[in-house]
């Protein structure tokens, strides 16, 4: 870890100093700081950093090798841009094509401060909305940069041919999203992620054809290679042949997405996992704010214990759909069309009149949980409880006509009908919150470099831009901003020290990394257990959802930690992995991923236990206002929690007591306030 990131004396952070709930579960470490962010006026910082970052001349770029793990919007755009710049890029994904990256599932849109609607938007307002939406737990320099480069993203994507929706005059259209009062979201019906990913994929394939990018599909990163304290490559498994491969480079970029699948049931793709980031964490990359999980309010409700995947309905539907439940419990079994208007509770419009159905995701999710907990949920009972609320388009259809709704949302309505067997044009949709996105991730500085020199992290895999809650349509914005416009400028400052000494596969650090992977694979295949990997994953997910989901308590989190530790110990002794290592073996793939989810889940609970405040998606029952809103404690918790991995030879896989480093959050361009959307 670079010495320049650590500052100060850790003594003031001793456990128990503020009645620390997590005392004994972690070790306090030295404070950490982002030393790469320039000072001065916030609107000049990015230009200052771009100018100060050293250059790499074209001849030297051809001598430098970059590994990029992940081909979603962040990874695909980074590989295309760095390949175009002349670097030698190796691009890895576990899917059979970069086009299958989970970015393709994003539906509603991408934010940009273009102010096409002339409704008061600006770079500063996008910056303000994002910091406020994140409940003042994000880093202001990074967020301002994100808002600043957002306008470039749209121009880039239009030039690539992305078919954004247009209004009658031919200009790009916008719609609004939760947490804001302006229209700044560019969209391509309900297929925005797909269209943006195709644009990045085309740019990537152009560089593959040019020879600057080499693609490795069906390869999963299983270990980070660190030589003399610097990231110098990865160990990957060919998922088809089973071969354990060594890939070396001068720098490694992780663009491997989020870890929402730790909950088992989520809106993430089934293959989404934390392994790439977690293996880096075990090698010294700090994990920041892991407890910050986003629960999306607009998902198709769970129908039973048979499910292994939840389906997201785009948040854009909240532009025209009205959310309600019956006022009377007795009406919950009725056909919603038979419930008169005066007996409906449009609870978001009632509680939050300024924003109504467009409140941020964390607030909409908790409100839905509250009305269902009151016994006013709708839909079929699952384990004795109705977990659903109505998303009703009848007023919008009356106002715009069915054709108008079809033009905006037809593929989303069709998807809902195919999954549920219900016609949303005639009967209100039923929705309920589900795990969707994670704001936590590997700690990075302003250059997107982790605490391991030479390891950069982009997109959802890092923590830097969203605080405790992500506003809708900001994930695609961050992924493309990082890949197209941020990383290519910041990574060159590190690469300017090249060409670097070449590392051979015979180097002891490389041999050790490869052996660790081989031993881990051998353990899974050699354990003659009795339980399937999926059964462990489902049990872990149940623990996480129950005790570290929409509401957390001290007692619940401590219970979860004990349960996870017991489950993890049993997993290492009793998991059953069928098949061999020399062919396609999805059971083996899952075993490694679930092993990492176990450790991550424990750290998430420790992080949530330490943060005795409510902010954004992290809601501690002990910290709320009189009317049930999230209550922050800026005097104690206005910091980024950056966790360092610690080893313990007496514990399975060597996980010991984590070390907490705190990065103070200082705002110079914005005032910290208690959030209100009323």
TrEMBL record:
Residues of the FAD-dependent oxidoreductase 2 FAD-binding domain: 65-476
UniProtKB keywords: Flavoprotein, Oxidoreductase
Claim: Flavoprotein is one of the keywords in the record: yes
InterPro entries to which the protein is assigned, alphabetical: FAD-dep_OxRdtase_2_FAD-bd (IPR003953), FAD/NAD-bd_sf (IPR036188), Fum_R/Succ_DH_flav-like_C_sf (IPR037099), Fum_Rdtase/Succ_DH_flav-like_C (IPR015939), SdhA/FrdA/AprA (IPR030664), Succ_DH/Fum_Rdt_flav_su (IPR011280), Succ_DH/fumarate_Rdtase_cat_sf (IPR027477)
Matching Gene3D superfamilies: FAD/NAD(P)-binding domain, Fumarate reductase/succinate dehydrogenase flavoprotein-like, C-terminal domain, Succinate dehydrogenase/fumarate reductase flavoprotein, catalytic domain
Domain Fumarate reductase/succinate dehydrogenase flavoprotein-like C-terminal: 537-677
Chain spans, region Disordered: 1-43
NCBIfam families: PRK07573.1, sdhA_Bsu
Name listed for the protein in its UniProt record: Fumarate reductase/succinate dehydrogenase flavoprotein subunit
Protein source organism: Nocardioides mangrovi
